[in-house]
Amino acid sequence: MLPPPMTSPDTRLPGFSFDIRPAANPGSVGTVRRLLRDALVAVGSDPATPCLLLSELLTNALLHGRAASVALELRQGRLLMAVTDRSPAPVEVPPESATRTTGRGMTLVEALADAWGVVPLGASGKTVWAVVAA
Fold first, then answer.
1. Taking every annotated instance into account, which residue ranges of this chain make up the domain Histidine kinase/HSP90-like ATPase (predicted)?
2. Predicted pLDDT of residue 14
């Protein structure tokens, strides 16, 4: 389930909303991350954590779901990132391992996001979302 809708915008705080359908290739991750970074810098927010989280969510979607769409919304100092892919496979947060060299993305999301979750879309895939202060 997605987090509850954000309350009406406070016109004193900057915000933005993007709906993106990146190309289904790894280079798209950097392109979308730069868009988010530039938007956050433009409104005076630190892009480091949001960009890391978005990179992890989008990389997973492209790796496991073959295609993705991204929704980004900054409102009242909170950034909602929702990445939809075409894979109905559940999202896993594997246990920590000193020997594993991959598979740490969702562990980072779990550790750094204020909240996150998955909305299953049946055979059409799923949406993985995260909210972080920005």
1. 24-130
2. 85
